[in-house]
Every structure is written in C-alpha cells, then in structure tokens.
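Schema walkthrough. Field components (list of strings):
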Amino acid sequence: MKNSFGSSVTVTLFGESHGAAIGAVLDGIAPGIEIDEDFIAGQMSLRRAVGKISTARQEEDKVRIVSGVFNGRTTGTPITFIIENQDTRSRDYGELAYKVRPGHADYTANVKYHGFQDFRGGGHFSGRITAGLVAAGAVAIKALATKGITIGTHILSCAGINDRGFENIPEDIARLNGIEFAVLGDGVKEKMIAAIESARDDGDSVGGRLETAVYGFPAGVGEPWFDTIESVLSHILFSIPAVKGVEFGEGFALTELRGSQSNDAFYSEDGEVRTKTNNCGGILGGITDGMPIIFRTAVKPTPSIYKDQQTVDMNTGENTTLTIKGRHDPAIIHRARVVVDSAAALVLCDQLALRYGTDWLAEK
Amino acid sequence: MKNSFGSSVTVTLFGESHGAAIGAVLDGIAPGIEIDEDFIAGQMSLRRAVGKISTARQEEDKVRIVSGVFNGRTTGTPITFIIENQDTRSRDYGELAYKVRPGHADYTANVKYHGFQDFRGGGHFSGRITAGLVAAGAVAIKALATKGITIGTHILSCAGINDRGFENIPEDIARLNGIEFAVLGDGVKEKMIAAIESARDDGDSVGGRLETAVYGFPAGVGEPWFDTIESVLSHILFSIPAVKGVEFGEGFALTELRGSQSNDAFYSEDGEVRTKTNNCGGILGGITDGMPIIFRTAVKPTPSIYKDQQTVDMNTGENTTLTIKGRHDPAIIHRARVVVDSAAALVLCDQLALRYGTDWLAEK
Amino acid sequence: MKNSFGSSVTVTLFGESHGAAIGAVLDGIAPGIEIDEDFIAGQMSLRRAVGKISTARQEEDKVRIVSGVFNGRTTGTPITFIIENQDTRSRDYGELAYKVRPGHADYTANVKYHGFQDFRGGGHFSGRITAGLVAAGAVAIKALATKGITIGTHILSCAGINDRGFENIPEDIARLNGIEFAVLGDGVKEKMIAAIESARDDGDSVGGRLETAVYGFPAGVGEPWFDTIESVLSHILFSIPAVKGVEFGEGFALTELRGSQSNDAFYSEDGEVRTKTNNCGGILGGITDGMPIIFRTAVKPTPSIYKDQQTVDMNTGENTTLTIKGRHDPAIIHRARVVVDSAAALVLCDQLALRYGTDWLAEK
Amino acid sequence: MKNSFGSSVTVTLFGESHGAAIGAVLDGIAPGIEIDEDFIAGQMSLRRAVGKISTARQEEDKVRIVSGVFNGRTTGTPITFIIENQDTRSRDYGELAYKVRPGHADYTANVKYHGFQDFRGGGHFSGRITAGLVAAGAVAIKALATKGITIGTHILSCAGINDRGFENIPEDIARLNGIEFAVLGDGVKEKMIAAIESARDDGDSVGGRLETAVYGFPAGVGEPWFDTIESVLSHILFSIPAVKGVEFGEGFALTELRGSQSNDAFYSEDGEVRTKTNNCGGILGGITDGMPIIFRTAVKPTPSIYKDQQTVDMNTGENTTLTIKGRHDPAIIHRARVVVDSAAALVLCDQLALRYGTDWLAEK
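Field assembly_structure (string):
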C-alpha cells in the first residue's frame, strides 16, 4: 500500500496542492464515537496558522465529511473528509514546472513519475496534504480521549531558541491544546517568532524540533518485531514532509550515557509498576510500559526560500539559477505540531484496536 | 503482521534466546541469485563478535538453510534459516523469572504476554534474535550487490569516542566490510575498546551511534505517503533492540540551520543530476535522489549491568534489589553494526522489488 | 485493512447509500496512463442500467475526479472518485430502521456496529457502493488495455435461462463490451428479460451466474501461497454483495471428472506453450499459464422482494412481518457484470505491478 | 506478502517436497493456550493418510516445535514447526525436470522462476507443503475450541459417490473429527474407496467436493469490503493445491432460486436472533450472523496419473509424450479435508483476533 497506513485503523491521503480537492479516508474507527466538528475545525485552524510568519495563501480548509458519520457519531465504516482547494494561484508556478527546487521533492517526483506528476505547488508532496491527516487525526485524538489518553506537542527548539521540556505532563498537554503557538516556557513564543521573522526578512527560513508526550496510554501494547511502538510511530512521522529525525525518550543523548545512568529503575506504588526516570520514553522492547510516551521530531528548515539557488533545468538538462516567488512559510514548525499530534493519534488508535479489538475505544 | 516485515521481499523472525532454535524466513527474493554460504557465515561471525568486550556465551551460530535454495541459487520461494541454540545455561536465570531487569523488556513482556513469555535470557526479546535477521540480510546484501549497490556501517561514536565521518563513500564502505571492529579513523578502534573495557571494569555498559551509507541506489524509489524511504528504514531500524533514535542526512543538526544552508543545490554533470551537498541523506520527499543514502542510529547502553539496581518482584509486587549475574556485553554497538546493514538491505531489496518488479535484482 | 484492497495497486471504497457521497480512492496506478472520461461514464451507465428491470432510483452517477489526474493522464498519486448522492428518498426507510430484511446485511450490520450504522438503504452495504469500484475499475481496464489485455463478462444463466459459453474469446469479449445486456447467444437477452419481468410481476427476484474471460494476460503471474491468482480474484469477487460462489475453469464440474479428462495437455506451437483444453481456467498452481483466465461467479437473487417476510423487530426483539416498499431490482445480474469486470481488472493490475514493477503497465 | 497470510494471526509456509525440511511459522496466537502435541500428531496423521489409496511415500511427519511454546503453552511469539523430509527418492524425477506435467504447476513454476525452481516432486508446489499448514492449523483449531467453536469437513462427493449433507451440525462435526475417512452417511466410505481404487486400477485419478461446517462462531465478525468472511476464507482455500471452486451456503444452487426461496427468514427465540434456513451459510453482507458457517470446496482430480500424456519438453521446446512413474495418489480428497479444516481455523482465529483483540481466544 502506498498512501494508506495502519492495520485495523487506517488512513488514506489524497490530493494535490493545486488540484480540485484534498482529503482523507479514515477507516476502522470504532462505531459510536461522537464527531466534534468544532474540534476538527479548530485543529484545521491550528494547522493553517494564518499569520505573518505563515504562508499568505488563503484557504478556508472547510472539512466536509461525506461518509461514515450518522447522527453525529461514527458508524464504523470509512469516514471521508474532503477539503476543496480554493485559493490556487497556479500562475505563480510557471518556471517551477521544470526548474527543480533544492530541498523539495520536485526532482525526485520528476524521476519517479516520469514527468507526469502535478508539479503545481509541489502537487501531492505539498505540506497542504497534511490537512487531510489533521482532519482524520482530530477524530483519532477524540477517540483516544474517550479512554483518558491525551497527547500534546510543543516546539522544543526553533531557530536557536529553546523551550523548556515537559514537567507535569498532563497539565502541560492540557495547556498546549489550548494555544496557537505551542511552547511551554514563558516568553519563548515572542523570542521564537522574532527569530522566524528575522529569517523571513533575510529571505530565508528556519526549522526546529518538536517534542511530543502521550499520557495515559496502557502498558503492554506493541510488538517485539517489527511493529514496535517506535517503529510504527516513526513510520508515520517520517512521512510528514520535512521530518528528518525521530528519537524516543532521551534518544541520541542516551548514547553518551552508561547503562547505570540510562536504565530506568522500576518501583511499585499503589499496586502499579512505574519507572523513576523515563529515559526510554515509555517504551521497552518496543512495548509500552505505562509511563508517558515521549518522542522528538526534527523538522528541517522550509526549503522554499527567496534567495537565489543553483539548480538544473529539467527541460534542457542545463545548470541554472532559480528565484522562487509566490507565497511561502519562513517556518512550518508551529504548523507541523498539530500534524505530529494527528499522526501519532492515528497510529496509537490502530495499535489499541489491534490489541484490544476494533470496538474497544468506544466501549464504556 | 507482527514478526514479519516487507511487502514484496519479506522477512519473518522466530525463536527465543534459550529455546531450541532461532531463525528467519526470507521470502520474495528473486530466483537465480547465488547463495554465498561463506559470506553468510562471515556476517554471522561479525554479529557474534566473540572477544573480551562481548558476551562469553559460546554459540557457533551455524546457519542451516532448509528451503528456497537449489543448486546453490535462490529458487524464488521462501528461504528458511535455522540456527540451533547450543550454549543455553538456563540455570543463570532463576531470579530473573520474576525480578524484571531495568532497561530490558522483562516487564513489558510480562504485561503483554500475561506471564506466559519465555523469560529465559530475554526470550524473544533477546538480541540473539537478530542472528536470523543477519542471515537473511546476508542474502539481501548480496542481491543488492548484483546491481552494484553497496552498504556499510561504522561506529560513529561510542563511550564518548568519535570516529571520523564518511569521506569517499564507496571506498569507506569497502573498507568497513572487511574489518571486525567497524571504524574509519586511525587509532579509533583502540580508544573505543579501551573505553568499553573501562565501563566493563566498572560493572557498567556503554552505547553509541552508528552511521550507515548506501551507495549506488537508484533515484526515484520510495513513496510520498506513507512508505517514504525514511519511513520504511526507520520502521525496521527501530525494531532492532536498543535503538532509540534514527536520523537521515544531517538529521537533528538540520534544525539548527537556515534553509539557505540546509538545501542541497542541484547541478548537472555528465548528463546526471546530483546535489553539491547531501544534507538530506539522499532522500527528498521520501524518495531517493540518487545520492548516497545516509542515516544514523542511536544505540542505548546495554541494559544488563552488574551494578545493583532497584526493581520490582513481579511475584510479590514488592520493591526489591536486583543483581544481575551471567554473561553480558558491556557494549553491543560493534555487533549491532552488521544488524543495521542487514535490516537496511532487506528493506531496500523490498523497495526495489516493489518499484521494478520481483525479478529485477536478478536480471542481467 | 478493511475497505481497502491490493498491495501495489489498491482501491479504497467509501460511502453510504443515502449519505452525502460515495466514491473510491485508486492508488498505485502507473503514471502517464490516459484517463478516458467517456469510458468511465459508459461503465457507470452499464452499472446503473436504468430500465424497467432495474431500480427506479434516479442517480446520474456523475463521477468527479478530484486528485491524481493532471493534463488528462494519471500522475501516479491517488486518484479519487467522488459521486454525489442525489435521489435519496430516505422517507422510504422508516420501518427498515429496526425490522431487519432477510437476505440483507441489516441484522449483521446491527450486531457489528452496535446500532450505529447508517441503515438507510442498506448504508455501506448497499450495492450502490459498487459505483466507486466501477469508476476505479474503468481506469484499471484501460490500463490493462495498454498491454493488450482485455476482459469481458456475460450472464451465463439467469432465472433458469442459459447463455452459450465463450467460443472465440477475444471476439466475444469485444462484443460484450459494446452491449448493455451482456449475453452472447442469439435471443437470450429477450428470454432472460422476460423471466426477470415475470419474477418482478410476482413481487419476487432472481439471481444468476456470470462468466468472465481475461485474454492476453501473461504467463507466470501469481504466487503458490497465499496469493494465488484464484485467491486474489476470489477475495475481491466475494466482496461484491450477493456473490456466494466462485469457480475457475471448469470448477465444480471438475470434481466429476477423472484426471485423464481434467488435465490440460500441453503443446508447443510457434514457440509458445499452450494447452489443448483450458479446464484449469488459465491458472496452474495458482500461477497464470498464458491461456485465458476463466471464472464464474454465483449471484444470489436480490433479497429485496415485495412478498411479506418473517423477521425480527430489533427494537422489541419480537417476531414480526416485514413488507418492503420502495424501489428495488428484481435482478442485479445484468448490473453486476460490470462490477465483476472492474473488480477483476483492479486485482490483475495489482498482480502485474507486483510482478513487473509499478510502472510496467505504462511502459511502451 | 507471498507465503504468509493473515493480519493479526498469521501463518507463513516454507519448504520443498524434496528439500531438507518443510514447515510453518504461526504468529499472533494468544499467549497461554495449551499445546496438545498428540492432537497435532493426530492431524498430521489424518493428512498423511497412509493406506492403499494414498501415496506410498513414507514420511513420519514428526513435527518439531522450535519456538513460541514454553511450559506447554503458547507464549504469544511466533511458533515454528519444522518437519524434516526423510523419504525423498529424487531419482524418480529425472525426466520430470524438463517434461512439464499436465495439470501440475511444473510449467507455470518454470515460467515464474525462470527454471531456478526446485522441480523435484513439485518443489514448493507439492501438496506436501500443506503439512506445515496442518501443524499450524491444529493449534488454531484448539484455540477456537477454547471458545466452544468447532469445525468439521466431510467428503460430500467423490468419484460420483455422494455423502449425505450436514444434519445435526455439532454432532456431525464431533463424529468427523474422530474418523479417518471423513464421511457422514452409512456405507459411503466403502463405495467411495471402491471408486477410488477403480480409478487407480485404470492408472487414473478422481476429485471431489468437500463440505465444511463451523459451529459456535459469534455473529458480527467480518467486513463489508474487502475482508468479508467469504473473501478471507476463499483466499486461503484457493491457495490449497487442486482447489478450483468455493461456495458458501447454497452457493451456485442459489442462482436457480427466487429471492422468496433463497432469503433466510429471521426469528427470535430465547432472546437470540436466528434464521429458519441457512442458505446464506451463516454470512450476510460478508459478516457472520451467528448461524453455522457452511462452505463447499471443489477439489480437482489429482493430476499425477499413469496414463501417457502429451506435453512439451522445456529443454527442446518440442512436443513429447510423458509417462509418470513414482508414487502418486489416485485421490487426495480424503487427505485434503484436514487441510481445509486447518486453513479455515487459521483464518477464523485471525478474524476473531482482529475483532476482539489479540488475547481474546485465551481469555476465560
């Protein structure tokens, strides 16, 4: 399968940046879960992130659900989300039909699809395709919430500015879900935005790191081979455009420690087994241990910049210079955060459905 | 599917550390590829890495192929590798049946399998299960080689000692494949081994980072969603015990750069499109661009250490202290390297078979 | 996966009979294949089969392609077909919300979805959902045609009237694709329609058998286990509502023969190996032998009849009598034929893409 | 995936008729289920069916379980069954290396695997490969039994002799599981064996139809698209060598009825909804309705016969005559019965695990 992911709960994405519509099919969600259209619209709005550090493209991103919902609840059959494209200024993309943009998928799409791809605005490789994922993810996030499982992502670093890490995880998650620019520390938002604006003023762009916590997820879920929780999460996370690194718990930093420092000691309290530290990010042997799942995602700088860049003209095969015009984000890290939440929620719903059965998330 | 991975070329792993046998089934490899039993034995030997910084467990790891090979070549049907366990001192594991080891899967396996798991030596969670993956991977590595695709992994860092990065990639790969302790820089091996021995002498352990290069892989392979090359590689890499981070190209370091620094400029030379830098690790939009595929893997310190650790007695639910005896590695990074090569080779064979057809790797 | 099928070429179906829209996502079709919108419309029309032996429901079944097509050709990314529902007289279905119809999925859907299913008009179980399959299948049929592979289905029997079998297969296929009521023999159409009308006049319904031939399909495609060509074809055929039997070649009749009668003798002619008879339906050991693929599909009588039937009121749990009103087909066999062609074409495209690579169908 | 089947409970088959060993990997079975080695051996014996109407090949078919079982119970990790081949008289197969046998997979294997296949005794296409399926199926049958679900198959017809159909299903199933030659009616066994012997004496072979009943399976399992219960059962059934037809309930005979005859009327009794007839074979809309699942399988005559047959010499491309020697069955229908039970049990375990979770079958 290509543009579909999951075993029991699955999502299929379709659409092109400047095509007629984009969207998603979400299948396998338990029947009887309430659809909160306001929440979906809110998540779409967080992804759109209209403002001066985001693209000037105006898209309402109104989600139309054409199947799988009846009387305000999931039916158990595929839920289809359709988002019509509206503000598609295809005139901006003339030269980009043949001059491949560095850092973008233009060249690889050209090789893969032999020139038949819809190149306008990045086509199917556009970050815009994540809108369908966010719509589907909104249903998954609400499905997890029925079992008390919450998820939140903050911008751990951007343009050299760092946020504080998670402290009280359930409280931090609650705070993140209420705000537009997802940072935890005081004054961090202003500094990051200033740094992003500085890059924008230079005709340049920045990237950053996202940190995600999942709270309340049960122990004992995942497989030793090959569907470890790390494997299935990283699989979907690395599908998100611009993601180039994923780590769990202390991740790469663990490689600097000794075993006596990195091992999380177990203790028993109130009849539950917990760990004193959580260096492993809630996952041991690929299987959840009941502690919060923690992971970090590296998002590379947005490749569309206004500086001249060297590239190749695919029509002539000659070296040339590219000057990108149009509407582009100096940063996408603040928009990617809701995409990461959505992707993770979809995978975790799938894992729970595989382990406990298709209807467990809707059971009282 | 659980202990199987891949779509067209697939691998299934089975076995427990102290069970009768371990092994793998490799399916979907093109018919007519020569089986090089010496190469398989060599790879097994690199994984076993007998020596004073490795476990004292004596296993011959003799691979018996019971199906899928006829007259010295692959038939196209499933190839089954069986490795009998020999040196299984189960007497070492008495207390470990109920005192869960920090950093290990003992606790999560207990929750997942309700106590029915084979706990001896980590059972199905043991690093020993990678022996089957290495046997299967040896066939995959040779299959890639028929098309001039080579792969090599070195220990980029271990216990605070760094190796140099890749320079001339095909030459560096060739060098790595000929040596037991996979480092590139002069004098690095001795320093790393000294650091590992120092940890061992403290009853402790260390981790490290592996860096892998794939050379000669064609452009245009992979999918935008959800089977990006990063997704499928990370999926299998995160299945390898102790892996807690994966990054492609410059990975997490990209988050500190601006777009003008991170974008890889394209240029044309001799009718081929290349990039001047390779920050993206040979993958753009999830699809290979023809440059070397580069990724790094974080391996946490071996969790079995000889220092006392706090844990829980699963029989009584009480807090207790654990003292691990038996035979354990102070480091596995030098052994994990061949596992990473094997895992990557299997996934890349699968991607090539999906793109070009089941028999492409064997076509002249 | 649930409402998705295929490995390299996949189709996902969504929608409910009386929901907002139905449709399909077709993924994995090679880039560069021409989209023939007239052919799609023609296939939709054959499925709709407006006339006095079909439902009086008036649906234009206009297919809107919102992704995956650019400049009239496939791009290689998911193709999404949306068909808006228009003539949805939900008022007809009041009593059917709780009185489950014999022969329908009303009861099993109620159990499976705990009463949350969209019961109107059969919801996701309606034959109407095949419209998305036919739209996707039309692209698959055209993709096969680029390699000279053709497919055709005729009504072998209906209401006790038999059609003649295939004789000159390529000619018979060509004939079938040009006609609305798919029979091969002279005068058969009139007899079958009369028999269907007779059932309709009795407030009853009929079923029938379809026979399908695929011509020009290459030898050597399929797997011994578990994806035999019979397995993958039957998998999708048994998904079509009302199908209760599938047989290949002489099928059940083979069980009455001896081996000396059923074996197809090989012979060589013009450098090609062929069989003198084709009792095996072009498939030996699960793999195509280059002869035409032949299969037959049993379609049960339409369950919606106007006679009173005994059933259970799901609200009260009491036995009751059901009288179905509304608009229903006395037969669907003449409409199912294009659904079978579509389903088979999708599976065969998938098999070819798996064997020869994703782009083979578009290669010159 | 090729030689693997299933989503949550999966089976992988490997081996060749005259290779070193054959076997299976069974993954995803709930932890804690008792392994009954005597039952496994009994099932192997039923498949082997040593006697004068079966092959003279002497194979002990001793099953060695090398993983996934600990203290006599399933652990939840892959269970590997290995059966060493012993009586491999490869000398019998000289001419068969290049003269392809009519009705066998010799020719299609040759095309698919470009001549690299292990041709000895049919290699991976041999009926012998079903031994691994039967071993795995024995565990699945016992797993179903923990929930009171039973399964049984009888020879409905063979060589023109008919058995009676199912009457009291649970009693009939119990009777079938105790006997070697699976028929229900009095005196049928003797007649069938006489007919088989008559064919054997003519150097010929016969086929037959199997009828299977599953009792106690819960309602509400299966999917509307594409994993209907018919779809997943037929998928695995059509993988069994020699199966050319599958029908559910009244199957092809339904096509001769009217809707008023074929619809199964619902009624309520003791708080349960049942149907008065079971023409649909316990499946409506692809989903189980709680009535017994009934299906029939067409098994073609054994292709290995002693009469001269016309074929092609693959070395020269010339037409030639083939005379088969060696050891062959005049009928396999009496052996195939346990293979069908096994295949069905594996698929049904998978469906239950998907619906109710991985561990449901082992829950009290």
